[in-house]
Specification:
By secondary structure, this protein is α+β, with helices and mostly antiparallel strands. It folds into 4 domains: 187 residues, Hypothetical protein af1432, CATH 1.10.3210; 147 residues, 2-Layer Sandwich (Beta Polymerase, domain 2), CATH 3.30.460; 141 residues, no CATH class; 75 residues, ACT domain (Alpha-Beta Plaits), CATH 3.30.70. The strands form 6 sheets. Strands 1, 2, 3, 4, 5 and 6 form a 6-stranded mixed beta sheet that branches. Strands 13-15-14-16 form a 4-stranded mixed beta sheet, with no helix packed on it. Strand 7 and strand 8 form a beta hairpin. It is globular.
């Protein structure tokens, strides 16, 4: 078992004696604070912080991180306040400890919410000091190593959280060794039987494969020696969890996964990496589509390497990774290499800069998220290990999650560009915004000044930043629109009792807020606009103060001036357009729904006059309104193209089309088209009726 003495000896290899003494002081302080506390295994509690510091020492972390590791449970478990720690060990260590400490004071509605809140707090602390996450990861790693002492249910919960959040974070920060251990231990805790069976199969396969692995390795080493290239060739084993994931995702058998032989070649410098690649492609035939150059374009977590797949003897697939010693160290320890290689400031610093950039991105998502669960949902998307790399028109590389679209790209460039995005060019050709991007493509975003995010974008965006920005915008838009509609509805209801909204006294406003249990007038108007509260009922709360309320029933209709808006919608059953006599009804959470006056679906609501709202078209109503029409035609070649052409000439666009072939001679074509008003629709109908193959044309309602 590790002791403070053995740890001090290890630390002497890279810390000075004064710093080691500070770490020892933190240990003795923690030992005193946790006095009498034990772990589930029965060991004194202080063995845990000591082990966490041991994990960090293997990464050559600085003395402040090690002190924070010693003290990371003191605030939470012993009641010692942050101020006391700051006084003893300084503000930096106290901030690190506070960042790592869990949120336990707040009671959350669910375990998921608590987990999300903890992660949210951690993200904020990471923004101030990236070391917080390294201490937190080391803490989680030791907890995973000692899971066996816990009850099965708790064990599975911690394992699931580790696989869901901590393993992807370790991957995102380039800490491959830690990620693999997280995944294997998490897998064994979640599915012990599967893990044992897979481990046994793996042991057996290793024995069967041994000879072939040695033959391939010898062939590679001999060729590199012949070319006078100094290198280290290692056979690379897939770890348990990655085998399990591949079997599930690709629906492949264990044998198919194990049929691939993987090797890593470590050389002195970058030039030699490319020389080795040429040698490998001469030794065995390469699979062109499988070559990836992560040296020229590093992954978002700083990972660099050349990847190629070769076809060996008897058609055996061979995966080869080629990298330098520094790249290999960076691939295994990731951001921790910043502390491991203080002398070589180039690559690790850029890796740390990448980590900071990621954390800043987290904070941006956090500001826009409505709650912690939405935040963590967006972050999980962002932790996706697979990435695509695309270029801006100026040649800058943007890294996006796999499956990302031009909208994700637009938001990655800038939130403002995302909001105003209307179209895109991929490799200088116009393309749909929903088209998934491929690595190496050049993307140009076309923006328009008045453009706004479309709710439909949420169906195909994949990056956390894009999704949180779109949701944030739509939430705000809905909030403003519902207040505006609520104001119009309440203003009209008050005019019916000879009152004006802008002339209400402070007492009257307070009376309304007291009666409706609302905190302010804005919240009350939003509630009315969303259809959760009836404007007439709110106005009636003031009616008793009005002496002449009996004689007033002047219903001034609400004016509709455009097709846009989230809180005024047009019923699909009858699709009203400007010029139609209309009526509205308030639907909870949806706002005002407008129907044609004689619509069958609104018949029942006529018995509840308080839910019916008088509406009218404004004289200068603008926009495009959808309407359904049914066209009966003689079946002939090219009829749909002719029909579409005739509609386009009349300035109407087709939103949807459905063809029902009645028999060999006649067909019924149902269309949903966009028009400006009844006059425009009449012009479209006249043009279509003039076609010789059209038998009958009607507008569909209900």
């Amino acid at each position: 078992m590790q002791t403070i003495e053995s740890l001090s000896n290890r630390l002497s290899s890279y810390l000075d004696s004064e710093q080691i003494n500070l770490v020892r002081r933190a240990y003795y302080y923690a030992e005193q604070a946790h006095d009498g506390q034990t772990r589930r295994s029965g060991e004194p509690y202080v063995t845990h912080p000591l082990a966490v510091a041991g994990i960090l020492s293997s990464m050559h972390m600085d003395h402040q991180s090690l002190m924070a590791a010693m003290l990371h449970d003191v605030i939470e478990d012993t009641g010692i306040p942050k101020k006391a720690l700051a006084k003893q060990f300084g503000d930096t260590v106290a901030e690190l400890v506070d960042g790592v400490s869990k949120l336990t004071q707040i009671e959350f509605g669910s375990r998921e919410e608590k987990q999300a809140e903890n992660f949210q707090k951690m993200a904020l602390a990471m923004a101030n000091d990236i070391r917080v996450i390294l201490v937190k990861l080391a803490d989680r790693l030791h907890n995973m190593r000692t899971l066996g002492a816990l009850a099965p249910e708790k064990m599975r919960r911690i394992a699931l959280e580790t696989l869901d959040i901590y393993a992807p974070i370790a991957h995102r920060l380039g800490m491959n060794d830690m990620r693999i251990e997280f995944e294997n231990r998490g897998f064994s805790a979640m599915h012990p039987l599967r893990a044992r069976r897979l481990q046994a199969a793996l042991q057996e396969a290793r024995g069967n494969r041994k000879e072939l692995v040695e033959n391939i390795q010898s062939a590679i080493e001999a060729r590199l020696e012949k070319e006078d290239i100094a290198s280290l060739v290692l056979g690379r084993e897939k770890h348990l969890f990655s085998i399990y994931q591949k079997m599930r995702a690709k629906k492949k058998s264990f044998r198919e996964i194990m049929d691939v032989y993987a090797f890593r070649i470590i050389v002195e410098d970058v030039d030699t990496c490319y020389r080795v690649l040429g040698v490998m492609h001469n030794l065995y035939k390469p699979v062109i589509s499988e070559f990836k150059d992560y040296i020229a374009i590093p992954k978002a977590n700083g990972y660099q390497s050349l990847h190629t797949v070769l076809v060996g003897m008897h058609g055996v697939p061979i995966e080869v990774q080629i990298r330098t010693k520094e790249m290999d160290e960076l691939a295994n320890t990731g951001i921790a290499a910043h502390w491991l290689y203080k002398a070589d400031e180039d690559s690790p610093v850029s890796n740390q800069a990448r980590a900071r950039q990621w954390v800043q991105g987290l904070l941006e998502i956090q500001k826009q998220a409505g709650n912690s669960l939405e935040f963590i949902e967006n972050v999980k998307i962002d932790l996706f290990p697979d990435e695509v790399y695309v270029f801006t028109p100026k040649g800058k590389i943007i890294s996006l999650p796999s499956g990302a679209t031009a909208v994700d790209f637009a938001y990655a460039v800038h939130t403002g560009v995302g909001h105003r995005c209307v179209a895109c060019r991929i490799n200088d050709r116009l393309a749909p915004l929903s088209q998934p991007l491929k690595s190496g493509e050049k993307v140009k975003i076309i923006t328009a000044a008045g453009a706004q995010p479309n709710p439909a974008w949420l169906n195909f965006t994949t990056s956390g930043k894009a999704r949180s920005s779109i949701r944030h915008f739509l939430k705000n838009q809905r909030h403003h629109e519902s207040i505006e509609l609520g104001e119009r509805l309440l203003g009209r209801a008050l005019s019916n009792i000879n009152m004006r909204l802008d002339e209400l006294s402070e007492e009257q406003v307070q009376h309304l807020l007291d009666e409706t249990h609302m905190s302010n007038m804005e919240a009350l108007l939003e509630d009315i606009g969303l259809g959760n509260r009836l404007a007439n009922a709110v106005a009636n709360l003031l009616q008793q103060d009005q002496e002449d309320s009996k004689a007033t029933h002047i219903h001034s209709p609400l004016m509709i001036d455009s097709d846009e808006g989230m809180l005024i919608s047009f019923a699909r059953c009858c699709r009203p357009i400007p010029g139609d006599p209309i009526i509205g009804h308030l639907s909870a959470g949806k706002g005002l729904v407008v129907h044609v006056e004689d619509c069958n679906n609104i018949a029942e609501l006529r018995h509840s006059p308080e839910k019916i709202s008088l509406v009218n078209w404004a004289p200068n109503v603008t926009g495009e309104f959808l309407v359904d029409i049914k066209v009966e035609v003689e079946s002939q070649r090219g009829i749909i193209a002719s029909l579409a052409n005739r509609m386009a000439e009349a300035g109407a666009h087709i939103e949807r089309i459905n063809v029902d072939e009645r028999d060999a001679h006649n067909s019924v074509i149902e269309l949903c088209i966009g028009v400006q008003n009844r006059v425009h629709l009449a012009n479209v109908i006249r043009r279509v009726r003039n076609m010789h193959s059209v038998i009958k044309l009607t507008r569909s309602k209900n």
